[in-house]
Amino acid sequence: MDDKTNALREHVKGIFSNLELVLGWEPGYDPLHTRPFYVRTESDIDRLTANCLSFQNLTRYLAKSMNAVDPAADGRKIGVCVKGCDSRSLVALIQEKFVSRDRVYVIGLPCRGTLDARRIRALVPDPARIRSVNAEGDELVVETDRGISRFALDRAIARKCLQCRYPNPVIHDVLIGDPVTPRLKIDAENPSVAAVEALSLEDRLLFWENQLDRCIRCFACRNACPLCVCQNHCIMETRMPKWITQYRNMNEKFMFHMIHALHLAGRCTECGECERVCPVGIPVALIKEKINAIIYEMLDYESGIDPEAVPPLLTFSPKETGI
Amino acid sequence: MSGKIFVAHDALSGLLDDLSKKFKVWIPQMMDQASGHIAFGVYAPGKKPELTRRSRLSPKKILFPSMDTLFKFTYVKDPKDPVRYTIDLKESFDNGPTLVFGARPCDTRGFQTFDQVFLKGQYKDVYYERRRQNTLFATLVCQDSDTACFCSSVGSGPADMTGSDMAVIPIEGGYVIEGLTDAGRKLVETSGSAPSPEQAAAAEQMKRNTAALKIGEDDLTGYADDLTRRFTDMDFWREQVSPCITCGVCTWVCPTCYCFSITDEASGMSGERMRSWDSCMFYLYTLEARGHNPRPTKMERYRNRVGHKFSYFPKKYDGMVSCCGCGRCIRTCPVSIDIRKVVKELKETADDRA
Q1: Which residue segment(s) compose the domain that B303 sits in?
Q2: What is the pLDDT of residue B354?
Q3: How close A321 gets to chain B, by Cα (Å)?
Q4: What is the pLDDT of residue A271?
Q5: How many domains does chain B have?
Q6: Could you tell me if B25 and B99 are in contact, meaning their C-beta atoms sit under 8 angstroms apart?
Q7: What pLDDT does residue A1 have?
Q8: Please, what's the largest Cα pairwise distance for chain A?
Q9: Closest among B268, B184, B147 to B5, alpha carbons compared
């Protein structure tokens, strides 16, 4: 995302009296990190940022950390900043009645991609001490203690952004900045899924075994996901019935990731948070992208586009086609 | 002999090959090139230690495995009276001679916390104790801190060799390895040839220079009472913890988090009693049998994490903070919560924050 910090602050200042709080981002502990930020008072507004480091999908807080369904007594709304991908999660949450459309004020931010901190660390000669990170046009400029590195933005942005089809928020009450051109057409094939599918069955199994073997069961992927809404009732943690043992072996890891993905079938909006937060770098979003491709092919449905639509796996239609 | 050897870069594999005949040798290694994931793994000829970049996961699992079989059990039915049965128990230990090569001072120092809890109290944890006694640490004098590192803030430093048996000191062309304990010296002396006087001097210089470095701006010890004072200030905790997604990353990557769960993993008539890592960031961690949860939200849970490390632990163990300053929780947190900032702000008054 191009830097929209000033425009965002200006806008929020103008409407803040009508809002209970605003979910946004603020700078993190170093120039490569950003953290979600709850703007609760007027004086907080100048801490807000919106740029290529605005990674986190803030809609998860609407579903999991607050009541975004019932109207406030004073009628004030919850402001939430969304990128294109985040806005789709919001739509899915509205469909599933975790969020009321009337309860939220949606600040849409067209986005050309967010950075992948791991890629940047691999690209710059001195990743330990990064002083500043700035996107200038199609170039990323990273300043470290040893000097300035410049490289194409595309080499530094997240995998999900390279195949982005919805860079512009699909719902919003205000749009900050001009809409941007999607990288891929709506019905384009997912290139990451295609790359894994090109492998032989044996190699594909090996690929996933190598990847999932690293899982440490921290559940960051689950907890960052805006649509993993079971919270403290997840099958990974319930003891009665005990679906999953405490073994850290492939069976249990595989089981967890498959259940996670299947529970998101027709719901996952490909915001990529599960993959970004994984501390051991497993491309977990790929599993969900494959399932989404199947849903699109069989049921002609794409999640998180139309707040009025009913996700196909949350309903039953005798006229269902494609199966 | 001087208790020191010099190992050239191209001789390191040979040294590890030799050591791996006597020890199970753990080294930091690249686990996945695409994501740059570095973690500790068992050395095998051909594997390359990753000594110039920090590992994402700590070596905690070497002495405290994420799943550890305490014993195995089998129910044996009495053939004459099948209602009666006896239980056959088998102890389970996995603790051959082990060497951790290339951990950083913070990694090795993390086990000091474990020692207090698992070895020095009224009860000893025999599983931990056996592994501890059988494990040697060859610790790297650390050259490359990043923006999340803060070992000097918790009473340590990049050349702190507390708990190490050997120091691995990078110099031009290779490493000087210096024995620090009897066991470490004995191993060093049988593993190679002494450094030249110039190499020995370079190593001394490197150690001195590194020891003089201050990694982390503030002193984060001495906050025990500030936490107590702040305990019921829920506005403070709300402000600090709002972004938290209550995953367990910070506790899983932490070299000093030692909480565990014990479960019976059984199938049919036999099974194992297993100890596995648990995390105070999870709802289930404090959920009581009748349904009450004393730490129902992330505020209470995160407060406990900070309190444990910077207040309750030092109060119980002579002022020792149970944080080694490795910065892993900061680096891996999906929402960049910075424990240094939280601790520091414990001291500030409400006026300072306004």
Answers
A1: 4-353
A2: 45
A3: 39
A4: 96
A5: 1
A6: yes
A7: 82
A8: 65
A9: B184
